[in-house]
C-alpha cells in the first residue's frame, strides 16, 4: 500500500487507481522488476501484467462494462528507444510494440499513465512517452465514438 513509507508515492499510482477509484482492471505494460509486495498485488485478478516477452502474442480480453486503467512502464522499452529511464534493461520492447499495446487497450480504458521516465537524459524516453500518450488519446477517442 505504500512505497518507502509513503502511500501517495509515485510508485503507488496504479494501486491508488484500483483502491480509490474503483477501476475493475489495471493493465501494466512492461513491468520487469518490483518488490515482493508489488508482485503479490500484481497476481490479483484485477491486475494484468503484460511482460515484454508476452507482448507479441498478447491480446486484451475486456468485457464492455469493465473499467480499465493502463500503466506503461517506459523501462520496458529497449534502451535503444528509451535510454532516459532509471532502470535500463536490454532486450526490451520496440516503440512499435509498445504503441500497438496502447492502441489495443485505449478504446477500453478510462485512464492511462507512463512511468519511469527520466526527463534529465537526452529526451528520447520523454519523447516516446509523449507519443504513447498521443496514441492513447487518439485510439481512446476513436474507440469511444
Percentage of residues in DSSP E strands: 15-25%
User: Separation of termini?
Assistant: 36 Å
Which oligomeric form is depicted? single chain
Number of domains: 1
Mean pLDDT: 87
Query: Biggest sheet: strands, sense, closure?
Result: 4 strands, parallel
Strands across the major sheet, in which order?
Answer: 2-1-3-4
Helix content: 25-40%
State the CATH topology: Arginase, Chain A
CATH-level-4 superfamily name: Ureohydrolase domain
Rounded to an integer, what's the Rg over CA atoms?
15 Å
CATH secondary-structure class = Alpha Beta
Q: What is the H/E string? A: HEHEEHEH
Find the count of extended strands (DSSP E, 2+ residues).
Answer: 4
State the low-pLDDT regions, or none.
none
Structural class: alpha/beta
By CATH, the architecture is named 3-Layer(aba) Sandwich
> What coarse outline follows from CA principal-axis ratios?
globular
